[in-house]
Design brief:
Layout (H helix, E strand, L loop, with lengths): L2 H20 L12 E4 L1 H4 L5 H13 L2 H4 L3 E3 L5 E4 L5 E3 L8 H10 L3 E7 L15 H11 L3 E5 L7 H17 L5 E5 L10 H4 L3 E3 L19 H8 L11 E3 L24 H13 L4 E3 L8 H7 L2 H7 L8 E5 L3 E7 L5 E7 L5 E6 L9 E5 L4 E7 L1 E6 L4 E6 L1
């Protein structure tokens, strides 16, 4: 090896180390839950660079970017294998311009780009994954300009210890890559990732198996509906903070049983009331908000739910807490979330199949005194000097109040 080559390698290594040292601490990468759009539930493997570009355009033109949706997440089946140097590459037919050019376009819109891999040799869909290539893939993702990695856990051992090791290996590789790349721990809540996500360098952890486009699982084939995921996630509220968020999987708002993976296992679609409840409870619980419908074909109902600034403000509240479930029975649930400025958000969820008259007694929920009450879906103040709220709640509806 010549002195010139050796000097070049040393300088390159020094630059990489300097970049790694200047990278943001992993605990600070997602100060609020990420918001964006993900390819999987509607498009699955039917993805390409034109879809991503058109979605980026729609996120801006529809006002979604201005509302806080900043990420475009490319899920599984983007991969084209590895080249002769074992560098992971995109499918050349789906992404003929390459991922870097696509990331540059997404960034030019003021957005961020996420990508997908798996902590095994193959992904859930059988594509090339990253086990044993963590540092090489992290450097590749960094060179492309990737901002987020969804890291799945198909084809991997069932135990929690191995999962912790594999996620830590990727988080370390991302940190060494010299680019700030957030890590989504996607092991579906089976290995108690809420206990170790932040320790291994993750920014959010999946709480359940994949969401389906349905209210709840009635066919008993293993699919997770909106209510199922709410009930799985509610007991985990104490683990939520600025270093890690509970990923309740994608928003199925607007899918309406149109197909794709969300239509498997009983996913025949939801009512707009049920979609509104998903948005309400994902926001109350500080979940990331990942839309998965076709943003080029938004309906007025989609816009009303996805662009509600008041419910988004609860999700993004800088106090960084999750709602605590205060009432839990067969017909309804009541949640309370502390917000900045001494305020609270209260969610009254009717899980029954008929309308109910529900009461939220503020003192009984741990909130003393009299308060102004605002309904975030009606966008208006509905009471002042109030000690309680009482009203009619439709089947599967969630009323969300902010009191101060």
């Amino acid at each position: 090896m010549t002195h010139k080559v050796l000097l070049s390698l040393l300088l390159s290594a020094a630059g990489l180390n300097a970049n790694a040292q200047n990278a943001t601490s992993r605990s600070q990468l997602c100060p609020t839950p990420p918001m964006g759009w993900m390819t999987w539930n509607l498009f699955k493997g039917d993805i390409n660079e034109q879809l991503i570009r058109e979605t980026a355009d729609a996120m801006v033109s529809e006002g979604l970017a201005a509302a806080g949706y900043k990420y475009i997440f490319i899920d599984d089946l983007w991969q084209g294998g590895r080249d002769m140097h074992n560098n992971i590459i995109p499918d050349p037919q789906k992404f003929p311009s390459g991922i870097k050019a696509l990331a540059d376009y997404v960034h030019s819109k003021g957005l961020k780009l996420g990508i997908y891999s798996d902590a095994a040799q193959l992904t859930c869909a059988g594509a090339t994954a990253s086990l044993g290539f963590e540092e090489q893939d992290a450097r590749t993702f960094a060179s492309w300009g990737i901002d987020y990695l969804k890291y799945d856990y198909c084809n991997a051992p069932e135990d929690s210890a191995t999962a912790r090791q594999r996620y830590h290996a990727m988080a370390t590789a991302l940190q060494k890559s010299g680019r700030d790349i957030a890590l989504g721990v996607c092991e579906w809540g089976q290995r108690q990732a809420e206990e170790w996500c932040a320790q291994v360098g993750g920014q959010l952890w999946r709480t359940s198996y994949d969401v389906r486009d349905m209210w709840k699982d009635v066919v008993k084939q293993g699919g997770m509906g909106i209510l199922d995921i709410i009930n799985v996630t509610a007991p985990l509220a104490s683990y939520v903070n600025h270093t890690q968020w509970p990923d309740m999987d994608m928003l199925v708002v607007g899918l309406r049983g149109k197909g794709g993976p969300s239509s498997d296992l009983g996913g025949t679609g939801c009512s707009d009331t049920e979609y509104q409840t998903q948005m309400s409870m994902w926001c109350m619980m500080s979940s990331p908000l990942a839309m998965t419908n076709d943003l080029r074909k938004l309906t007025p109902a989609d816009r009303r739910i996805l662009l509600n600034p008041e419910i988004i403000a609860i999700n993004q509240d800088s106090l960084g807490l999750a709602a605590q479930r205060k009432v839990f029975n067969n017909d309804y649930q009541i949640y309370v979330r502390k917000l900045t400025g001494g305020r609270h958000a209260i969610a009254l969820l009717n899980t029954a199949d008929q309308p109910l008259t529900l009461t939220a007694d503020f003192a009984a929920l741990g909130i003393e005194g009299k308060h102004q009450v605002r309904d975030v879906w009606q966008h208006k103040q509905i009471a002042s000097n109030a000690k309680r709220w009482k009203g009619r709640v439709k089947p599967h509806e969630t009323i969300v109040l902010v009191i101060e």
